Structures are given as C-alpha cells and as structure tokens.
Amino acid sequence: MTDLHIHTRASFDSEEDPAVYIAEAEKRGEKYLGFSEHYDYDVIADGGKIGLADIGGCFSVIDGLQKTADVKILKGAELGYSAGAVAKYKQILKDYAFDYTILSVHTLSGRGDCYFPEFFAGLSARRAYTDYFQAVLESVRSDIDFDILGHVGYVSRNAPYDERRIIYSQFKDILDEILKETIARGVCLEINTSVGKSGATFIPDVDVLDRFLELGGKYLTFGSDAHRAAKYLYRSEEVKNFLSSRGVDGLYRVENRKKIKEKF
Known about the structure:
By secondary structure, the protein is an alpha/beta fold. It has one domain: TIM Barrel (Alpha-Beta Barrel). It is about 35% helix and about 20% strand. The protein has helices at about 20-30, 40-45, 55-65, 85-95, 125-140, 170-185, 205-215, 235-245, and strands at about 30-40, 70-80, 100-105, 105-110, 110-115, 150, 190, 220-225, 250-255, 260-264. Strand 4 and strand 5 (about 110-115) form a beta hairpin. Helix 5 (about 125-140) runs parallel beside helix 6. About 40% of the residues are buried.
C-alpha cells in the first residue's frame, strides 16, 4: 500500500529526515512512497506568515535519495486551499513536474486554521463544520488541477466540542455535493488515518466512505499524514480490512499524474 501523505523536515511542522521514511519503507518491503510537503499559501493569502516548502529543493533532495533507494519516491505536495491561493497553485503546477498534489482545507479567511481553538470561538459544532464543508466544496469546484482531495473532516480533529465526530446523516446534503463533485472530477478521495480527537475511525469516517462507494466512487488513496516515520503507514491494515469488507480490492497511487490501482 502506498502512503501518499507524508511530511518531512521540508514542511514547517515536521523535523523528520526523509531518509528515515525510506529506510522504513524498504524494511517493510514497500515499492513506493510519496512525500507531500506543506505548501500552505492560503495562510499567506490571508495575510498570515508560514514557512512554505522549497519545492525545487525538495525535488533535488528526492532525486539524490532516489539514486540509492530501493523504493520509488513520488514527488507530491499538500496545497492548503483558499480562493486567494488559487492563482499561486495554478502557477506552481505549471512550474513543477509533480507526481501528484493533495488539495486540503485547513483555514478559512479571517478565522485561521481549524486545528486551533480560536477558529471555533462562538460557533456551534454545526456552524463550524458547515463552514468548513462549504470551503471543501469550493475547493473541489475550483480550477486547480489537483489529484487527491485531502482529509475531508479535518475540522473535527481538534474541535473543542463534547461530540466531535462528524456523522454523515447530519451533514448529508453538503457531503453529497462534495462526494459527487469529487467523483465527477475523477480525482481521488483520501482515506486519512490521522484522526486526532475526532472520534472518527478514519477521516472521512466510514459512513462517508460508504456513501462515496454507494455513489459510484472508486478512486481512493491512503494517507497516514505522518510527520514522523513512526506514523508511516499508520493503521493501513485497518483501512485494507475495512475496504475489503465493502468489496473493494485495492487502493490507488498517483504517479506522473496517473491513477494506478494497487490490489490488496
């Protein structure tokens, strides 16, 4: 199984050496892994400050590591969506030959990152989650040429509510819009196993994934969202078992912008 959502010290929130991930992949007998460093221009577009990955530098590091690695290293990036960042992302997609990009919503304009308590101040869970999902819907309808829709449900990871879990039936209208748009675009939906305090099994949770499959969705990728090598392929067997129980026989990796099925 290819883990396509991995962060190294090239991202502002990780200190991990990429070589450690490669060694772990080789030990496990994996054939591929993907580095998806943070490029969160959404923060800058909203007037904030954040360290952006040096994409050219990342590619050079990967090229150097690839010379001795027994795994194929895929070149990715995680793009933090906002309307103000669209032009920037369209430009870097022209400038760099990514294998894939993950488009994720972390922030809302004027509210910051929904990982932090300030985002939720004065908001009910329904209001906060609905606002987040509206941004996700906007992202998947954008004209950014991305490959994977990342961690739909991220807003619940560190939410301050007694009941944090996102339940499909409570947000079914907007979640259906997101899932239908994802399927119509032919992009992949990520199963992310970094669930934080959300109470979910995965992000998105199993009821949302069931709905995706019911609607005819087939392109699913795996992401541990690891920021250290100890979390590489985190809970990948649980994802495999869940999907197998639904009659799904594999996941996809994205290489050179092409979706390639990897059967279990």
